[in-house]
């Protein structure tokens, strides 16, 4: 069976890689039970380090919108050069909810 593909960075997600589910509409903003996508954990961390829950709910509630954010686009260009199982800490503090 083939590894799933991360919809944010486009790299495969091997079984041993850190991975997590991202609610396209944050649970705190009414997204409980809503659509989720499987991401590399590092991609998920970068989303939450970049955007607030309110921004995610209002403007960045699709993969296409997330890819269009300037900081995330820069991150995607960087992480695509890394192996599929790559993980590191995300610099900076997490944004407020």
From TrEMBL:
One of its GO terms (molecular function) is nucleic acid binding. Residues 6-49 form the HNH domain. This is HNH domain-containing protein. It comes from Marinibacterium profundimaris.
């Amino acid at each position: 069976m083939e590894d799933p593909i991360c919809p944010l960075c486009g790299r495969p997600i091997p079984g041993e890689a850190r991975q997590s589910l991202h609610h396209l509409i944050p649970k705190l903003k009414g997204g409980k039970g809503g659509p989720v996508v499987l991401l590399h954990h590092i991609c998920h961390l970068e989303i939450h380090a970049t955007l607030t829950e309110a921004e995610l709910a209002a403007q960045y509630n699709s993969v296409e919108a997330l890819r269009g954010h300037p900081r995330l686009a820069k991150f995607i260009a960087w992480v695509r050069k890394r192996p599929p199982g790559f993980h590191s800490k995300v610099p900076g503090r997490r944004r407020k909810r």
